[in-house]
Amino acid sequence: MSDYTRLRTPFAGMSFTPDVPSNALGPAEYNNGLNIETDVRGIKKIGGEASILSSIPGNVVFIDGGFRSEGIWVYIAATREGKWYMIAAGGITNITPGVGANPSAFLSGYTDDVNITTSWVGSVFFINDSLRAPMYFIPTRTEISIYDQAPDNYVWNYDIATTSTRAEFVRNFCSPNVGNILISGNLTKDNSSTGITTNYPTTIRWSQAFANTGVPATWVPTLSNVANELEIPVRGVLVDGFFLGSNFYLCSYWDTVVMTPIAYQSSTAPVFGVRLFNQGRGLINNNCWSNTDSNVYGVDSRDIWIFDGNEFAPLGNQRVRDYFFRNLNPTYSSRLFMVNNTQKNQIEIYYPDLNSTGWCNRMISWRYDLKLWNAPKQIANACNACEAPVLVSGNFKLASRTVTYGQGSVAASQLIQTNIGNSFINNQPIPVLFERNNLVLQSDKGPVPYSSKVYVHRILPELAGTGTVDITIGGANSTQQTPTYGQVGHVTIDTDTPWVTTQQNSVRTVSIKVESNDATYAWNLTALNWQATIVEDAF
Question: Which of these, 243, 233, 355, 221, lies nearest to 294 by C-alpha position?
Answer without folding.
Answer: 243
